[in-house]
Design brief:
It contains 14 helices and eleven strands. By secondary structure, the protein is an alpha/beta fold. The strands form three sheets. The chain has a five-stranded mixed β-sheet. A four-stranded parallel β-sheet has the order 2-1-10-11, sandwiched between helices. Helix 3 (35-48) packs antiparallel against helix 6 (67-91), helix 3 (35-48) packs across helix 8 and helix 6 (67-91) packs antiparallel against helix 8. It is globular.
């Protein structure tokens, strides 16, 4: 297990996970042991007017996986972990001083709250609406996503072009070398999965999401989010944040507004994002949220870096 004090000696990046990391029971332990975490859950329930703790701790899994519920739930649990971590460090007479922050897809909203660019209550309302809009879009044009392991990007792009006879399907996430995600309409996605296997992919895995995120199917969601974001108060981040769409630093409020609106319909450049952080001197990555997906991706992208999850710090069973 990683010692908390050891984090303070490193050039540290905080990473916040996206949708798909939810699971029944998430956040229950940190809620039990941390007053700061309990305050985050209470605030979220007050803002959203929904029994978020019951949903996170007890499920049912289908209700938690609903994108309009999963998004605010993951945001809340991730920030509960962050506040519990800060609370534990205060008890040691120390403070958390990350070099940089980033989030994968939905996690980008969490990262902006962590960097004091976006208020928690505004982030909750935004991601709840983002989830609702995405669900609406998926009902009109049903689709999903699949991870493709061990196939070159050029080959997978060719697969998507071939499968597009059946509908829209695109490469959506560059998660790590050898792991790409495709996203699109149901029939086209199924065809692309078959073609990827025929082309020699080591594994093709349907993801547990019911929306075709990070594809042109989400363009209308992006437009609606842009209108919402125009009315939300934002400020320049206290901590540098790396953007999903470009893999580069977001600096201004206008850049943040554009990023948060368009990223839902654009590919996530996670490999580039992690390399950008490493190029800026980050040696240690800490995933702050449920699960360990990003921890595993970092270890594949930046093999000389250290990567930890909340479980490694004793916050998860």
């Amino acid at each position: 297990m990683m010692e908390l004090g050891g984090l303070l000696q490193r050039r540290l990046a905080l990473l916040f996970p996206g949708q798909g990391s939810q699971h029944v029971g998430m956040g229950q332990r940190v809620h039990q042991v941390s007053e700061a975490a309990r305050r985050i859950f209470a605030q979220a329930e007050e803002v959203l007017g929904m029994p978020l703790r019951r949903l996170c701790f007890e499920g049912p899994a289908e209700e938690l996986a609903d994108t309009a519920n999963a998004q605010p739930a993951i945001l809340t649990v991730s920030l509960a972990y962050l506040e519990a971590l800060r609370e534990r460090l205060r008890e040691l007479g120390a403070s958390l001083q990350p070099t940089i922050v980033a989030g994968h897809s939905l996690g980008e909203f969490t990262a902006l709250v962590a960097a004091n660019a976006l208020r928690f209550e505004d982030a909750l309302r935004l991601v709840r609406e983002r989830g609702r809009l995405m669900r609406e879009a998926s009902l009109e044009r049903p689709g999903g996503m699949a991870a493709v392991i061990g196939l070159a990007r050029e080959a997978l792009e060719d697969v998507c072009r071939q499968a597009s006879e059946m509908g829209l399907v695109v490469v959506a996430n560059d998660n790590s070398p050898g792991q790409l995600v495709i996203s699109g309409e149901e029939r086209a996605l199924q065809r692309a999965m078959e073609l990827a296997q025929e082309r020699g992919a080591k594994r093709v895995v349907r993801l547990g999401v019911t929306v075709a995120s990070h594809s042109p199917l989400m363009e209308r969601v992006a437009q609606a989010l842009a209108e919402l974001l125009a009315r939300i108060p934002l400020r320049e981040p206290d901590i540098p944040i790396v953007a999903n769409v470009t893999g580069k630093i977001l600096s201004t409020v206008e850049e943040i507004r554009r990023e948060l609106a368009c990223q839902v319909a654009q590919p996530v450049q996670w490999t580039s994002s992690v390399r950008e952080m490493a190029n800026r001197g980050v040696t240690t990555f800490l995933e702050v949220g449920p699960g360990q997906v990003l921890t595993g991706l970092v270890r594949k992208i930046q093999r000389d870096a250290e990567a930890y999850s909340m479980r490694d710090l004793g916050f998860e069973p």
